[in-house]
Specification:
Elements (H helix, E strand, L loop, with lengths): L1 H23 L44 E6 L2 E2 L3 E4 L2 E3 L1 H13 L2 E6 L5 H6 L5 E2 L7 H4 L3 E2 L4 E10 L17 E6 L3 H11 L4 E6 L2 H9 L5 E5 H10 L3 E3 L5 E5 L2 E2 L4 H16 L2 H9 L5
Parallel strand pairs: 1-5, 1-6, 9-10, 9-11
Antiparallel strand pairs: 2-3, 3-4, 7-14, 8-11, 8-12, 8-13
């Protein structure tokens, strides 16, 4: 009976060992993690993972209107900032655009259009930057972002040599009623509209090109033309019997117009422009077209 008891105990012990092994040895069994339990985080899901490891990391790649190009919208009838020479558009703005494009590893492309289409082209993504001797104004700042100012412009008054208008004050005199020629949607148009036409002191005749406004002056259709000083010099040199008054109409800052919807491109272009201003490249371009007097 004693021998039988020992044998039975041995069998029972062996069965217990086998049972324990069966419970703990199933390495291929599926996980039994509950719905509210959180498994260990993988490296890609870790909050310390680098942006390169995260598939949601945003790309800082520069996107332009035309791949590989920096497209400049302009009105090539504003010498010396932009004008046609042979089959090419040249000038201060054209060279600044080329210098920016080179810094960014892009090819410059210039699209010529009506001045009042430039901001629309930029806002609509058809052009990357508007460079056209464009003045920074609060109204334009509502529509586009402006780059660093790269030049100072001065609006002047062109008259015939025998004109009764001898200074800017004559335009503002009580009872004045002159007809003033301007290029449509330029600052000459904007300022004379606000200052004179809206006050009942003048009638503004708007032309698609500055040259057309100057021809209107020559033929007696307008009493004077308000336009930027640099193209004014060219027009007066080309058209006999005209002169520029000594008194300025207004001084303004020129900058590039860019879309508010492409922050990456804006930062890249504006950064490149700042560098070109700082190293003297921009001033060198301006001096090439506008020699320092004396």
């Amino acid at each position: 009976m004693k021998k039988f008891t020992k044998a039975m105990a041995l069998v029972l012990a062996l069965m217990l060992v086998l049972a324990l092994a069966a419970c703990s040895g199933g390495t291929s069994a599926p996980s039994n993690t509950g719905a509210n339990e959180t498994p260990a985080a993988s490296p890609a899901a870790s909050p310390d993972a680098s942006p390169a490891e995260s598939p949601a990391a945003p790309s800082a790649e520069i996107k332009t209107a035309n791949p590989g190009k920096l497209t400049m919208a302009t009105n090539a009838a504003f010498p010396p900032y932009e004008f046609v020479e042979g089959n090419a558009i040249v000038g201060i703005d054209a060279e600044i655009c080329a210098a920016i494009a080179e810094k960014l590893g892009l090819e410059p492309q210039i699209d010529d259009m009506e001045f009042d289409s430039i901001i629309m082209a930029v806002k609509g993504g058809k052009a990357d930057i508007g460079l056209a001797g464009m003045t920074v104004t609060p109204e334009r700042e509502e529509e586009v972002n402006f780059t660093e100012s790269y030049a100072t412009g001065v609006q002047v008054i062109i008259v015939t040599e025998d004109s009764a208008i001898t200074s800017v004050d004559d335009l503002f005199a009580e009872g004045a009623n002159y007809t003033i020629g301007v290029q449509r949607n330029t600052t000459g148009d904007l300022y004379t509209t606000w200052d004179l036409e809206d006050e009942g002191l003048a009638t503004i005749d708007r032309y698609s090109k500055g040259a057309d406004a100057v021809q209107a002056l020559k033929t007696g259709k307008v009493d004077c033309v308000v336009i930027d000083n640099e193209p004014a010099k060219n027009f007066v040199a080309e058209v006999e019997g005209l002169k520029i008054l000594d008194t300025e109409y207004i001084e303004e800052q020129y900058a590039g117009a860019m879309s508010k919807d492409n922050a990456v491109l804006y930062e890249a272009v504006n950064g490149a422009l700042k560098e070109l201003i700082a190293d003297g490249t921009v001033q060198g371009i301006i001096d090439k077209y506008i020699p320092v007097e004396g």
